[in-house]
Amino acid sequence: MFKKILIANRGEIACRVAATAKRLGIQTVAVYSEADANAQHVQACDEAVLIGGPAPRDSYLQWQRILEAAKATGAQAVHPGYGFLSENEAFAQACADAGLVFIGPPPSAILAMGLKAESKRLMEAAKVPLVPGYHGADQDPALLKREADRIGYPVLIKASAGGGGKGMRAVYGADEFDAALASCKREAINSFGDDAVLIERYVQKPRHIEIQVFGDSHGDCVYLFERDCSVQRRHQKVLEEAPAPGMTAERRAQMGEAAVAAAKAVGYVGAGTVEFIAEQDGRFYFMEMNTRLQVEHPVTEAITGQDLVEWQLRVAAGEPLPLKQSELRMHGHAIEARICAENPDGGFLPATGRLDVARWPAHVAFERGDVRIDAGVREGDAISPYYDSMIAKLIVWGEDRAQALARLDAALRDTHIVGLHTNVAFLRRCAATASFTGADLDTGLIEREKAVLFDQPGLPLRISAAAVVAHTLALEAATQGPDPWSARDGWRMFGSAARRFDLEAGGTHHEVLLSRHHRGGMTLTVEGEAIAFAVQSSDAETHEFFLAGERIRVKTYAQGERVAVFAATGSAVLTEVDLIAHAGDGPAEGGRLTAPMPGKLIAFLAKAGDSVTKGQPLAVMEAMKMEHTISSPRDGKVAELLFAIGDQVTDGAELLKLEA
């Protein structure tokens, strides 16, 4: 076994590898960018080496610096994690040339499976089922268009060298093809340095089912069953589970054997995932192979009881696979939810900012348990525009799917993140949809259930307002002196005392009145309704109150005037306005076309002087590895372009001026 390894990645996967290595008595070396100097993965490792600036191209993609760090620290092997260089055959070969063990497959396997078109040809030879499509080297746009017409719409355009939904578009008609192809090629060249694409028939109502495979250097290869990853947004996974609901033992064996055949066709060693598109009737087709560990590997660990990172380390050290196929067993059901910094109601736009609050349910970290959190960040850390938007992975296990679903809902309910937009509430709604609970799964689930997933109201105002009042009263009680004259409870010998709270929720101002009666009772008046109110607070964050006899428990977290409220039925963010402090504030300027997040401007789709219509795309930005289109909010004329293509722009920067 190795004595020291270098982890050529960041975030939760780097923390996960460090935890397993430590358990095995292996020392670890972290590499980090200037943006990650205080990151959790740096603290988790025994040593750390700075390798460059905050952008990935200046740090985590600089493999020469990574190799120099490995040599300088005496590491014997390099674990690439996932993303960045994990599927770069040149990096894997460079490790070998430098006398380092690359903890992953041989470069030849990465190369063969990394090019989707080439992998399709290999799979066809290995008799693995394929979706009808075009996988040729000729990338003439006119030819690609003819092939799409031949296959029949809808078709899927996919970056040949890519993954993670980047460089991928569904095209439903010939009139959409040219624009979609151009966008895919732009995104592919920016993400992978290669704009080649392939075209496939877009299977209707498909399930995305993948098989975890593992090969060793002794010629053995096994599959560790399947994961259903059908719940996706923008072709990226949201919820993953194992085993796949409705999977029969016969179909499981067929898919597992096909996956092993795919791995053996390229001489695969280490952890890999063979991904299939499956029809509702059970027919399945090879889609691609990810030549690395997957983000969703914890659900496989949960149902098999195996540590896949430990398997990686042992296999890379030359040991045989820990178990034979006949020795592998499944038990129970596991579900993973990807918690991301993004705004689902804003088209899943990535969010940046500080994790002012990051509170998790009771859990284990990086180990098998009923509730597990894999996180590479801590409370107080910043989510920057340089890296992926994922904050953490929440994994739950149950004896069956019903128990796993119940644990997932409870764990999401107790996940409290404040400081930026997240998808936690969306995940909870998604897991509660009729489609997901009923295991009616396909990649269109989110679109099909959009009526109950997007733009949903948070907590009722009466509850969130009562929580803010309880929070304020708890703070005041904690700071009052021991004598009755310093009490701030509004006590009166006769009559009642009324106090006004000015709250803003969703851009709307609300006046809430708290009345205290001389006999000790309280009344809260919200939107003209007077409600009997009684409150008991354990501390400034934990409150239990009664509204018209209903008992409600909440958590509150305040940053300045903003108070985040979390209850069993949902969450809300309100602003407790200090009217005196805001006296004289004027209206904010509006109507500008601004950057919705920090990122790089990669295209203007109109020039100065052009007349444009409402909804017309005007600019394209790239942030967190994805393209985002900014459209015109109204009809008008472009007066001026304020940036050049390639410029880095800040959140809220005005990109262009639009005249009426």
From TrEMBL:
The keyword RNA-binding does not apply. One of its GO terms (molecular function) is ATP binding. The keyword Ubl conjugation does not apply. Residues 580-659 form the Lipoyl-binding domain. It comes from the Bacteria. Pfam families: Biotin_carb_C, Biotin_carb_N, Biotin_lipoyl, BT_MCC_alpha, CPSase_L_D2. Residues 120-317 form the ATP-grasp domain. Signal peptide: none annotated. Keywords: ATP-binding, Biotin, Ligase, Nucleotide-binding, Transit peptide. Residues 1-451 form the Biotin carboxylation domain. Its cofactor is biotin. SMART domains: Biotin_carb_C. This is 3-methylcrotonyl-CoA carboxylase alpha subunit. It comes from Roseateles saccharophilus.
